[in-house]
Amino acid sequence: MDEEQVVKFVETYLKKKGFKQAELAFHDEVQHNSNANSVDIHSDPDLSLLLLSLSQSEDTPARYHEEYRKLRSWTHSSLDLYKPELLRVLYPVFVHCYMDLVAKGHIQEARTFFNSFREDHETVHSRDLQKLEGVLSPSHLEEMEFAHTLRQSKVNLKICQYSNELMMQYLRNTKSTMMLGIVNEHINFQVSPGQPSSISDDAEVVTLIGNSQDAANQINKKEIHWGLLEDSLEERLEKAGGLLSDSEKTEGDAKEGDLDETKVNILKRSVEGGKQGASVKKLKKDKAASATAKVVRPETNTSSIAPRVKSELPLPVIPTEVEQSILEDLRNRVQLSSAALPSVSFYTFINTHNGLNCSSISQDGSLVAGGFSDSSLKVWDMAKLGQQSGNSVLQGENDTAPSEHVLGPNGVKRSYTLFQGHLGPVYSATFSPLGDFILSSSADTTIRLWSTKLNANIVCYKGHNYPVWDVQFSPLGHYFASASHDRTARIWSMDRIHPLRIMAGHLSDVDCVQWHANCNYIATGSSDKTVRLWDVQSGECVRIFIGHRSMILSLAMSPDGRYMASADEDGTIMMWDLSSGRCVSPLMGHNSCVWTLAFSCEGSLLASGSADCTVKIWDVTTSTKVTRTEEIKTGSANRLRSLKTLPTKSTPVYSLRFSRRNLLFAAGVLSKCK
Amino acid sequence: MSIVPKETIEVIAQSIGINNLSEDAALSLAPDVEYRMREVMQEAIKCMRHSKRTILTSDDVDAALNLRNVEPIYGFASGGPLQFKRAIGHRDLFYIDDKDVDFKDVIEAPLPKAPLDTSVVCHWLAIEGVQPAIPENAPLEVIAPPSDGKNSEQKDKLPVDIKLPVKHVLSRELQLYFDKITELTLRRSDSALFKEALVSLATDSGLHPLVPYFTCFIADEVACGLNDYKLLFALMRVVWSLLQNPHIHIEPYLHQLMPSVVTCLVAKRLGNRFADNHWELRDFTASLVASICKRFGHIYGSLQTRLTKTLLNALLDPKRSLTQHYGAIQGLAALGPNVVRLLVLPNLEPYLRVLEPEILEKQRNEMKRYEAWRVYGALLRAAGQCIYDRLKIFPPLPSPPAHAVWRDNRKIVTCSILCEI
């Protein structure tokens, strides 16, 4: 190819793209020192071909279709060893092809392109595809968060060296410039030498997250102190062997930034192999220790292993008599394990006329609250609900909240206390740890605090701009966290009407929120399919957990503070290691939305309640232990052991709660049609 | 290009008073309408999830519109879960059945009852991991074989405690219940308490775990208690009650039950030959057999054929005793007139030849003669029923003294058949 030709190509290209200035500058450049800069163009045939194609291409939509089709068939006929890796490239290319077509205004062609290839990705990405299908004009691309972030960011793909070479060679040889362009523009290959990685390790590949994986990795390197609070009641129980120490200790220690090194176990995750190996080994040792400790004296394993941290928040004081009753409960706790399953007491709501949105059970199971779509909040005192149920169930745990039966408007005795005040459906309710307060959140954007002693509304917290989906009291009371449609989570204290912290960062609704056992962190689950962990004191995001394939519906924190469970719309439950930010094991079993999760008090069991009318009990100890050893060897995904499935009689399970004595309470609505 | 056709846009435009919407405008509006629709649905699904439902209602759509500051659509309240019907001829097109309601009917109808107030009831879903069999819990499934647990664990090489093979654990209450029922059946089957027990067997929902034990018990007792008429009758009543219970899946145990039941129908001797009214037991068992066939015949195609084969063999074997013949005839008759027509009527002639000497005065043995007459009576009844059934097909003839004539007819018909033979 001689130089004049090149010049001509460049000119036509610039003209076509409308770069007038550049064209003029190019002209000058060519005329002045044409001999100097032409060397490398000659030497690189690829580049000249690229230029050639750019100047030629007119019929773009058809080329997208054609080139993608070719790439697809090439990938499917590639070597078996490298096929999984190459197949992974197809999805981002597909999505970007579609969006490019839309952006260029070829709506009709975009549709046909989308429909002809969507089946390939339907199994894994059906939800994303549904979203994208609606994008039909360039303005939609801008408007829709998901599409917008996809266009802005690059996808990270792990690929082995050889696959990468194969792919590039193919793209060059077939002059698939469109595909090459997309691959260069939107995919960031992380080329690794050696063998291609296995398919199972695909959590990151599955979700195309708006913010790039890099950012998530960066965030996940931050330190977190997942240990339990110093001087918690459990610890005191062990130390004193049941004797009470003064309750003053709980107070104070506020805002002390630095931490006691001997007590704190800081685990950093690092991408580099050596470091990671070391930390994993450390973990393994830890776990082994815990396993042996468990054999010897199972009742102390959590507290003796879990490191202690100081609270970063000033915490409320627990009254002595309450503390005593809690200690009493702890002494009488039933030890649960895979061999000793819990007893489950089920509260069934009847005659709700499809109006119950949420339910909540107090710590001791004596109070049950239901939030309704008619804006009301109703609280049942199970201790007074007829002798047939109350007495047998409560086992003397109900020493709080002596609320009275209330007479209805026409003098008919109602079995519940009616709280009215919200102006929209009540989406969530939560009891304070002592059962004397209830918080409810509603579509009217407010959160209300109710007293179960006075049976009245005390405070109305305004701050969110959109419906508040979830509200949760902190494990020690006083503070609470809320999650809203306005994409923020907020931290409040009972005595302030304005939020103390606003956690912003999720790309879609924040659907659920949960406190860490040591009150220093909250976790939020969102419709953007991620779970984030936030530092309450600083308001920073300290972890992003990526791996779910649909909206997150519920979260639970293990009592030892090390693990978190999250459940989504599809019925998948994932167990995360907070320190590494990695998924320990996905739990498959439910086939519908999992509304609620709960860890047993010593953390050995996880209970999940689902819309498929079952309560499932999972073994936490074995599964986490297994993964530790196996992670190093194979890295294959593990599943927790499902210990037991308890079917209900056509009653979806809305909430679960382990009492301090490890009795499991569950609540749900009897639905008539199956 | 959009799933909303431009014609729809034009229709909507006309409905709000824009008559001259240009085609271009409609074409460019269509994709946007589709996008907005999807957006609203996305929000509606969120609202549905937060109401902890899996069925989208019009309330959710209203809430979604509300989120977008759009006026909700009025007039589409949904009280209960909607019943979608599939449109005929379409695989994935559904509609809500909306019936026309006459105003007059609505006004004249009595006021509906006030809806019941919401309440909470409490029960044990599980006690130490075991679900008690109470009506509030879902009926227990048939016990799964203890297979998978061990294998999968060994495969995974998990360092965990290996589960023991699943034992069928009966709660203490169920054990007591079983003991009580068996005791009543064995010893006090004529007491009022036994009747209560039968009612309980026919209605209680938590009995499923006991079914294998009951089938076993019945099979054992029938096998060794053929001389005890009272016991046999009590056992058959128990079977009858179990069959009545709607909460029990008895199908898997049917193959164990059937032999005992058939025994009680066609056994040579049931109880004392002279003192006990074994005819009654056979009649009862015949109806039991018929009800089993009726209920499970369509699930087990071979059930009825096998049964009729057994019965027919018993009937046509001249060496069998007359009591056996009687049971067989009753059993076949209970299965319906068609069975009689197809199986009994063609065999009448040879059979009557066998029966004839027994029935006439020649037979010295009084007992035998009595038995023969019983068999004859059963035959008459079966054949009569069959013919009567056939006659019913035709329109009734206008004959004034209907009752008497019918009687006569029946006799005549049966006689004529006999004559033909």
TrEMBL record, chain A:
PROSITE patterns for this protein: WD_REPEATS_1, WD_REPEATS_2, WD_REPEATS_REGION
Domain TFIID subunit TAF5 NTD2: residue ranges: 59-187
Predominant location: nucleus
Gene3D superfamilies (UniProt xref): TFIID subunit TAF5, NTD2 domain, YVTN repeat-like/Quinoprotein amine dehydrogenase
WD repeat residue numbers: 349-382, 419-451, 461-502, 503-544, 545-586, 587-628
InterPro entries per record: TFIID_NTD2, TFIID_NTD2_sf, WD40/YVTN_repeat-like_dom_sf, WD40_PAC1, WD40_repeat_CS, WD40_repeat_dom_sf, WD40_rpt
Subcellular localization: Nucleus
Pfam families in alphabetical order: TFIID_NTD2, WD40
Domain of life, source organism: Eukaryota
Keyword Nucleus: yes
Keywords: Nucleus, Repeat, Transcription, Transcription regulation, WD repeat
PANTHER family: CANNONBALL-RELATED, TRANSCRIPTION INITIATION FACTOR TFIID
Protein name: TFIID subunit TAF5 NTD2 domain-containing protein
UniProtKB/TrEMBL annotation, chain B:
One Pfam family linked to the record: TAF6_C
Keyword terms of this UniProt record: Activator, Nucleus, Transcription, Transcription regulation
InterPro entries, alphabetized: ARM-type_fold, Histone-fold, TAF6, TAF6_C, TAF6_C_sf, TAF_TATA-bd_Histone-like_dom
Gene Ontology BP, a term: RNA polymerase II preinitiation complex assembly
Entry annotated with the keyword Transcription regulation: yes
Coiled coil stretches, renumbered: none
Record-level GO cellular component terms: SAGA complex; SLIK (SAGA-like) complex; transcription factor TFIID complex
MF terms (GO), sorted A to Z: protein heterodimerization activity; RNA polymerase II general transcription initiation factor activity; transcription coactivator activity
Location of this chain's protein in the cell: Nucleus
Domain TATA box binding protein associated factor (TAF) histone-like fold: 2-68
Listed SUPFAM superfamilies: ARM repeat, Histone-fold
SMART domains: TAF
Primary localization: nucleus
Superkingdom of source: Eukaryota
PANTHER family assigned: TRANSCRIPTION INITIATION FACTOR TFIID SUBUNIT 6
Family: Belongs to the TAF6 family.
Listed name of the protein: TATA box binding protein associated factor (TAF) histone-like fold domain-containing protein
UniProt source species: Hevea brasiliensis (Para rubber tree)
The organism's taxonomic lineage, starting at the top: Eukaryota, Viridiplantae, Streptophyta, Embryophyta, Tracheophyta
